[in-house]
Design brief:
CATH class: Alpha Beta
Radius of gyration: 17 Å
Order of helices and strands: HEHEEEHEEEHEEEEHEE
Oligomer: single chain
CATH topology: Glutaconate Coenzyme A-transferase
Distance between the termini: 28 Å
Helix content: 10-25%
Number of helices: 5
Length: 220
């Protein structure tokens, strides 16, 4: 399992029976392959699918069956299809239980930037803003640093803000942070990762919970 798969598998553990879940572009799309067999969730895609399944096997893709990021998907028995307006009505109406989003940056109070890089042309914010404002819970899944090795968890955003709404949970290949009123709280270290490494690679300030976990071991 590589780092991105680890992040997706960890995020899948946050889902509960009956959740309606929107998976963003990038690492979030991998979550579909790691949903525990003992829970039933309904994966939603902004382009008009409810009931997305795991990634298709090689050679079994349908070019007409894609998610909002234009990646091929499967659908489960009982899935439904609808137009984009209906899809966004679900989001804006508060019917999405959990959104799992990728990001460019997260700031010290849990706000994110995930739709534009200054100086580069973009088509628009897409569904990210709606998902932040309309979802009951928002989980971020991201690599801890960017390709240059700079922290993606920063004191202040340098990319355009997506929404003032703070996310609830941040999951990287190194750690899990909960977002509270007073900022970021480290609640879990990935197996084999030291607290010192997380501190070194996290630019934003964070607090350490009274107890946090490393794998299945409780750290005090």
């Amino acid at each position: 399992m590589n780092a991105k798969q680890y992040i997706a598998a960890r995020a899948a553990k946050e889902l509960k029976n009956g959740d309606i879940v929107n998976l963003g572009i990038g690492i979030p799309t991998l979550v579909a392959d790691f949903i525990p067999s003992d829970i039933d969730v309904f994966l939603h895609s902004e382009n008009g699918i409810l009931g997305v399944g795991p990634s298709p096997d090689p050679g079994q893709t349908d070019q007409n069956l894609v998610n909002a990021g234009k990646r091929p998907v499967t659908v489960l028995e009982g899935s439904s299809f609808f137009d984009s307006a209906s899809s966004f009505a679900m989001i804006r109406g508060g019917h999405v239980s959990v959104s799992i989003l990728g990001v460019l940056q997260i700031d010290a109070i849990g706000r994110i930037a995930n739709w534009a890089v200054p100086g580069k042309s973009v088509l628009g914010v897409g569904g990210a803003m709606d998902l932040l404002e309309g979802s009951k819970k928002v989980i971020v899944t991201t690599m801890h640093t960017n390709t240059e090795g700079d922290s993606k968890i920063v004191p202040k955003l340098t990319y355009p803000l997506t929404s003032e709404r703070k996310v609830d949970l941040i999951i990287t290949e190194l750690a899990v942070f909960s977002v509270k009123e007073d900022g970021l709280h480290l609640i879990e270290l990935a197996p084999g990762v030291s607290l010192e490494e997380v501190q070194q690679k996290t630019d934003a300030p964070f607090q350490i919970s009274e107890t946090f976990t490393r794998g299945n071991e409780v750290m005090v």
